[in-house]
Amino acid sequence: MYCNYCGKVIQDDANLCAYCGKRIGAVIARKRLVRPRAGRKIAGVCAGFAEYFDLDVTLVRLVWLIASLVTGIGLLTYPIAWIVMPEEPLRLAEPAGQPVTNP
Ligand SMILES: [Zn+2]
């Protein structure tokens, strides 16, 4: 399969792209608005929105920051989103068939 972000060929069962480090197998996180455990700066709110809407997290942070400075809306909504958005569940139920130990 191909990475959605950099377009390089990666392993079919890969969770991370080996080239750009983006998360590929984050289907659970993409269906629900959650705060991812990886790649967060403060509470992962911006990272969560970025994953949910499939946007660049830097862009989300920039927009949020500008909205905070200009209107104050960002400052108001960040703690609300922090409280309301659940944390990404620990991915214990990885899909079976990963070639880890079985020869
Ligand atoms: Zn990639």
Features:
103 residues, 2 domains, 4 helices, binds zinc ion
Describe the 3D structure.
This protein has 103 residues and is mostly helical. It has two domains: 1-27; 32-84, no CATH class. Helices cover 38% and strands 0% of the residues. It has four helices and no strands. The protein has helices spanning 27-31, 45-52, 57-70, 73-84. It is globular. The model has no long low-confidence stretch (mean pLDDT 81). The structure holds zinc ion. The site of zinc ion (ZN) has 8 residues, from loops. Zinc ion binds next to loops.
In brief:
This protein has 103 residues and is mostly helical. It has helices at 27-31, 45-52, 57-70, 73-84.
Which structural class fits the helix and strand makeup?
mainly alpha
Strand element count = 0
Q: From the alpha-carbon coordinates, what is the Rg to the nearest angstrom? A: 16 Å
Counted up, domains total 2
| Percentage of residues in strands | under 5%
N-to-C series of helices and strands: HHHH
Distance between the termini: 23 Å
Which blocks of ≥5 consecutive residues have pLDDT under 50? none
Outline: globular
- How many DSSP helices? 4
Small-molecule components bound: zinc ion
Roughly how much helix do the residues carry, as a percent range? 25-40%
What is the averaged pLDDT score?
A: 81
Largest sheet: none
